[in-house]
Design goal:
NADH Oxidase, homodimer, about 40% helix, about 15% strand, four-stranded antiparallel sheet, about 200 residues, globular
């Protein structure tokens, strides 16, 4: 055991945390999501780009609009979750850089004037922040159910715009009955890590 | 305070964790990296794809080969780190799926026969795992210094192959003298999270 993080926290965030497929009725409050964001906003992104944007789907009306774009296999659990978050990345993140990197007021124009450069940076750094968000949901003692099975263009048109790309949709709540599938295998260390 | 994760762990992983720019001489052991991987391998990926691959750069010879491809501003700190990890994603991850999703032995051919589909999935899911890796390094009580400033093609040719794309390079170690820049601002909740 070479980790400093205590076992209970390891279990909460990784070892016993599982992708939930059912949810209880217990609501997820805005206060909980604020607490998640106030933690995970500190996770590192390149040049502090911070391109993650989150759309919360809570009302029955908004949920119906979301379900229309989810893959068949994801509809039942998404209908059941008390809160669902659409995680997206902002291709116009550079507009916020004067606030985010005040020491480099020209970075927005010098490094990120090209849309293609921004799209590539936003895809990577938005995904990093999506992972931090999943960890943050678990840190709040809630189960997360991340999904990439949806009609991307439909979802974008319904909830976002051409400057925002969906990264994933995450059901959030307390687990309901029979919430997990059996844990799937992982690759052994020696098949993943090599030394140059 | 709506989080279940205790404050010390919040600080270790997010609030007080910082991107290190200098490192002490204290070595990072293989045991520590094994412990990091044995924790973060449980982080979720779509369909358990698990495309992250890690190349550790430890010897002076390997470090020289790495430095040749790093951006000028990243060379000094990369020369100083006791261990540097090249995080890459595997575009041929589908070859491992029979092991990773044993309930769907045909998934490899049904869903992932197209390289373009695999590249897109590997980019997103590899980035999620890269974020888990950064959290894991912090969980080990070590400082991480993630970087995307390098010659991508040069790095790929030197340490990887055409089936693996670099995601980031991460310096790992105990912080050295004056290791941090001042904490940069983050976007407020209401500019990031909206409700549909």
């Amino acid at each position: 055991m070479s980790l400093l993080l205590d076992s209970a926290s390891q279990n909460l965030l990784f070892r016993e945390a599982r992708t939930a497929n059912t949810f209880s009725d217990e609501p997820v409050t805005e206060g909980q999501i604020r607490a998640v964001y106030d933690l995970i906003k500190y996770g590192p992104t390149a040049f502090n780009q911070s391109p993650l944007r989150v759309v919360l789907v809570r009302t029955p009306e908004a949920r119906e609009r979301l379900l229309a774009h989810m893959a068949e296999g994801n509809k039942a659990k998404t209908a059941m979750a008390p809160l669902t978050a659409i995680l997206a990345t902002d291709y116009e993140f550079h507009e916020e850089l004067p606030k985010l990197v005040p020491f480099a007021p020209d970075a927005k124009d010098i490094h990120f004037s090209e849309r293609r450069v921004r799209e590539e940076a936003a895809a990577l750094n938005g995904a990093l922040q999506a992972a931090y968000f999943l960890i943050g949901v678990r840190a709040a003692g809630l189960a997360a159910g991340p999904m990439t099975g949806y009609d991307t263009e439909g979802l974008r048109k319904e909830f976002l715009d051409d400057d925002h790309a969906p990264l994933m949709v995450v059901n959030i709540g307390r687990p309901g009955p029979n919430p997990w599938y059996p844990r799937l295998p992982r690759l052994p260390y020696d098949e993943v890590v090599t030394t140059a």
